[in-house]
TrEMBL record, chains A, B:
This is Crossover junction endodeoxyribonuclease RuvC. Mg(2+) 1 binds at residues 7, 141. Residues 183-196 have a biased composition (Basic residues). The keyword Magnesium applies.
Length: 196, 196
């Protein structure tokens, strides 16, 4: 299973792709940041991020997109842009028939470090260890996106995806799976680790 | 000038299109609501609203899209969905090279009724009078979308669009205008007033 994790943000949106391996292991496929220039207008910033997310989805053809659940209570200054980017990621996935899962920051910290109150640095260190990386993934947004993806891979069996039901019919799912495997055959190159 | 107003919402997103007429008058082109079913998952709801907004833009080819400015402080329960739909409207416009303007609810009330503290009913009555309608536009979300569009038409000369700069270069603007007039020739039919 391939999961694309999105840590939503308007200035820096972290994106990380991991594949599951046998025995609760995971492999880094790609990680990076999609950003937008705070000096441009909000509509063009959102369009830029939407196009970037489209490219990531087309390049890596994930089975699931895992998005950090955004809460209205936090960071009033940036919450609107964050919510909007999360919405763009969900629409981009839904347009391709890819299921969307949402996980809270505490779920991610608990899954990756064992503690729902772990700090950023601790999450980065554990993600580097889990994925067998020599260096900590940077920036932090990129590490968070990888942590989201790993959290989804390691979610308890039978758990609903981040509390969201996914409403595709069996026929839609079959169609999406077939289209996905066709696109994957066309687009998927050798795994890369370049940051974008 | 044709303005498409969007009163963002996930369950009911009001959409209204008006044309300016000489002498500070305006004509209703179309008004309605794009909605999504609260029983389905958030990703599919957002996709449904995005597709609906795309249809409105393709059908009416506005010169400007006016979106209500959403504040994080209000309506914590629905603000995330509202912000996400506003983001989708902005991206849909930006993708077509259509400038986006944002206006606050008080700006809209002041422009349409003369008072920034007017009630919903008062806005509906004034919009009906301004557009020469026999009945009040309903639901309220649809009336708000028309009020947004009229507010944009009547904004003070030289005012920045809702405080946002629009960052298209002159060449991009010329290209967008040319493409728009081509699309308009292809798609634009007789003005309709059906609610969707």
């Amino acid at each position: 299973m391939r999961v694309l994790g999105v840590d939503p943000g308007l200035t820096r949106c972290g994106v990380g792709v991991v594949d599951s391996l046998p025995g609760r292991r995971a492999r880094l496929v790609d990680v990076g940041v999609v950003g937008s220039d705070p000096a441009t207008s909000i509509d063009l910033r959102l369009l830029h991020v939407a196009s970037g997310l489209d490219e990531w989805l087309d390049r890596h053809v994930p089975d699931v997109v895992a998005v950090e659940r955004v809460f209205a209570q936090h960071n009033l200054g940036t919450v609107m842009g964050t919510a909007q980017v999360a919405g763009l990621a969900m629409v981009a996935a839904a347009r391709r028939g890819i299921p969307v899962a949402m996980h809270t920051p505490s779920e991610v910290k608990a899954a990756v470090t064992g503690s729902g109150r772990a700090g950023k640095e601790q999450v980065q260190r554990m993600i580097a260890r889990i994925l067998g990386l020599d260096d900590l993934p940077r920036p932090a947004d990129a590490a968070d996106a990888l942590a989201l993806a790993v959290t989804h891979l390691w979610r308890p069996a039978g758990a609903l995806q981040g509390g969201e039901r996914h409403e595709l019919t069996p026929a839609q799912r079959a169609w999406a799976a077939a289209e996905q495997s066709a696109r994957r055959g066309k687009h998927r190159g050798a795994p890369s680790r370049t940051s974008r």
